[in-house]
Amino acid sequence: MAHEPLTRESAAADQLDTSAMALAAYAADQLLNGDPNADVATPNEQFHWWQSYLASRLRDLAAAVHLGRPRLFITQVRWCHDALTAKHVETDSFRQALLALAGVVQTEIPGPGAEIAQRYIHAAVEQLPDTPAELPSALDTDTDTGRLAAMYVLAILEGDRRRAIRLIHDAVADGLNIQSAYLKVLLPASHEIGQMWHRDELSIAEEHFATATTLMLMSQLLARNTPQAPNGKTVIVASVTGDRHT
Q: What span, in angstroms and rounded, lies between the C-alpha atoms of 206 and 57?
């Protein structure tokens, strides 16, 4: 069966994706040789940290280029900038890392793919803020469910898994329906936990503890829920390629 020819964008995206680790290695080497402030790990880990990080940004770039939507890359770059700033990486180091990527792409990607990728990268660099964005709380404590979500987050942050789970089960026993527990309590609570990790206020271990608690609770609530009659439809849910999470 004949295949349709790749568009310029699709071809560029394929080149970026398949060469991400190699391109990131070149860019990491240039960055560390030119920017002594780009220290985010121990000296022995610096290169591999930046290589892995920049490879992830190249895959973000490949996805945006494939779809023809530079705003996707710009938004992701801003999110990453805020996360690294919280970890005390200077904005200029982050900017230099992106420019190193642009330079490597120019020399290593053949054809029009380089021009397309560079355009996306420079657009993201131009819109980098000088300071990280302020993230509003995901918890609305003016509502009953918002206050419950806040108490749930507090119990998790104090490491009291049993109290966190009991709070939600008691609320369901008092009339909170399962859908509201999921959407109005656990969802904003998870969002808040995620933002705290993003701002470097939680360790990865603490975030994993919170996520595991919520997944455990969701399974328990599902067992208490009265399922609707099947409608003949099936939903398939999966992570994107390269995602190492559930």
A: 25
Identify whether the C-beta of residue 9 lies closer than 8 Å to the C-beta of residue 68.
yes
Calpha distance 6→12 (Å, rounded):
9
* Token pair recorded at residue 202: 């939680």
- Across the chain, what does the average pLDDT equal? 87
Neighbours of 14 (CB within 10 A): 15
DSSP code per residue over 15-62: HHHHTHHHHHHHHHHHHHHH-TT---S-TTTHHHHHHHHHHHHHHHHH
- CA–CA separation, 242 and 89 (whole Å): 25
Euclidean distance between CA atoms 242 and 159, whole angstroms: 31
In one-letter notation, the amino acid at residue 174 is D
User: Is residue 146 within 8 Å of residue 191, measured between CB atoms?
Assistant: no
Phi/psi region, residue 27 (left: phi>0; alpha: psi -120 to 50; beta: rest), is alpha
- Alpha-carbon distance of 85 to 53, in angstroms, equals 14
133 within 8 A of 82, measured Cβ to Cβ: yes
Q: Report which DSSP code applies to 3.
A: P
What pLDDT is stored for residue 2 in this prediction?
Answer: 44
Q: How far apart are CA 31 and CA 169, in angstroms?
A: 51
Of the candidates 196, 221, 222, 199, the residue with the CA atom closest to the CA atom of residue 209: 196
Residues of the chain with pLDDT under 70: 1-6, 35-43, 242, 246
How far does Cα 84 stand from its chain's mean position?
12
Quote the CA–CA distance of 187 and 149 in Å, as a whole number: 9
DSSP secondary structure code for residue 181 in this structure: I
